[in-house]
Specification:
Number of domains: 4
Shape: elongated
CATH topology of the largest domain: Nucleotidyltransferase, domain 5
Structural class: alpha+beta
CATH superfamily of the largest domain: Ribonuclease H-like superfamily/Ribonuclease H
Number of helices: 11
Number of strands: 12
Helix content: 25-40%
CATH architecture of the largest domain: 2-Layer Sandwich
Low-confidence stretches: 1-5, 130-137, 377-409
Largest sheet: 6 strands, mixed
Order of helices and strands: HHHHHHEEEEHEHEHHHEEEEEE
CATH class of the largest domain: Alpha Beta
């Protein structure tokens, strides 16, 4: 003898048979089956109007879902996600507005996230790392475009033809606008300077350029960490701003851009170096003009950035006081004062410096307001710190107390 099958429908059928008998108390029957009177009357009504099929288990899904996404919207979300593999729901929702959908047809961020998850296209969640080191040196703020540019070399990779590709990235800190993303065959200061000359002609001059402490942006031995590139920036009225050694998080926005490049470009190299160069330029245009940025209120960097009013042809040479002697640094990095050679730095070759007399035999060397050398028993301090602003802006920055800023004449 087999066991009698008892499921939810059989229990409901047994309940309505008893509840439909004349003279039976609905309260007692509901208490016997462990249900409320409201549920008991509902089942009896369904049985009386629909028969046994009315006792079947029904879905809890609403009869209508006016806020559900249509098939066309779901297809557009999946297509945009395949075109932009690292973009999340926030950026994809902004792109949907340009696909011709009405605002009422665009789902919420949560719905887009669920669509991506069910389609197997969700962005992999990355575990964040806590910040271990507090920022100790003051870095320049960027209240507007062209106040601070950031520059860095992205780590290199090899293209399909075996050539080394190491892009130079230059970016506006405020607007996140990428000014340049160019693979360099050589990372020399002369090559990087030519790139900056093109950018200065096109976009104007920034106030500050932030970099790390590597070549060709900084030197560990030259006065104030100057290189030929950063010394040239000073002659244009641009202050080099350096992060602390070993602390890339102080230039976090640029490093975040490098991570996107590593994920979307370096992870799948192009067959040739030339194709990789064109690919990087397309990625830069997409980043600047199409990709919305959460820190900008979901605007694109191109909608926020504008060129600088300071132009390269308007730069006024630095004016030393009239009491100073002016010299050009020779090819060996030295100057001759009173028949004696004084070594400054190879970073200052060909640049004009000012010599301040100190009594009968002493003298002090200045370069664009920075004390470079002194012929006393103790040489000038040479610290790898953020350089002070040119004298016009000196009152607006926090200067190192060991760096004396020279007033203009």
């Amino acid at each position: 003898m087999s066991w009698r099958k008892t499921d939810i429908e059989h229990l409901r059928m047994e309940f309505v048979w008893i509840a439909c008998e004349p003279g039976v108390s609905m309260t007692e029957v509901c208490r016997q089956f462990g249900i409320s009177r409201k549920t008991g009357y509902k089942w009896r009504y369904r049985f009386q109007t629909e028969g046994p099929p009315g006792l079947a288990v029904r879905t809890c899904r609403p009869l209508s879902s006016p806020l559900s996404a249509s098939g066309a919207v779901v297809a557009a979300i999946c297509r945009l996600r395949n075109d932009h593999e690292s973009w999340g729901a926030k950026k994809l929702r902004v792109l949907l507005t340009g696909e011709g959908f009405r605002p009422t047809e665009i789902p919420s961020l949560v719905t887009i996230g669920r669509i991506l998850e069910r389609s197997g296209l969700a962005v992999a969640k990355r575990r964040g790392r806590p910040r271990r080191w507090p920022q100790t040196s003051p870095l320049s703020n960027a209240p507007g475009p062209n106040d601070v540019w950031t520059v860095d070399f992205k780590g290199w990779w090899r293209t399909g033809d075996g050539k080394r590709c190491e892009p130079l990235g230059i970016r506006d800190l405020y607007s996140r606008y990428i000014l340049c993303l160019r693979p360099m065959k050589r990372c020399r200061g002369k090559d990087v300077r030519r790139v900056f000359e093109e950018l200065f002609e096109r976009y104007g001059l920034p106030k500050v350029i932030r970099s790390d402490n590597g070549a060709p942006f900084a030197s560990l031995t030259a006065p104030h960490g100057l290189t030929q590139l950063s010394a040239w920036w000073l002659t244009l009225g641009i202050r080099p701003d350096r992060i602390e050694p070993g602390h890339p998080e102080q230039n976090g926005g640029h490093e975040r851009m490098n991570r996107d490049i590593a994920q979307e470009i370096a992870g799948d190299p192009a067959p040739t170096w030339d194709e990789e160069k064109a690919r990087l330029e397309r990625w830069r245009v997409e980043y600047d003009l199409q990709r919305p940025h959460e820190a900008l209120g979901m605007k694109t960097p191109g909608a926020v950035y504008h060129c600088s009013a300071r132009r390269l042809h308007q730069v006024v040479p630095y004016a030393y006081p009239v009491t100073f002697e002016r010299h050009r640094v020779r090819k060996n990095g030295c100057i001759r004062v009173d028949g004696k050679d004084g070594y400054l730095s190879h970073a200052l070759i060909g640049l004009e410096i000012g010599v301040e007399r100190l009594g009968a035999t002493g003298w002090r060397v200045w370069f664009c307001g920075l004390k470079v050398l002194e012929n006393g028993p103790k040489p000038a301090a040479q610290q790898l710190l953020a350089l002070p602003l040119v004298p016009d802006d000196a009152q607006n920055c926090n200067l190192c107390p060991d760096i004396k800023v020279l007033p203009r004449s």
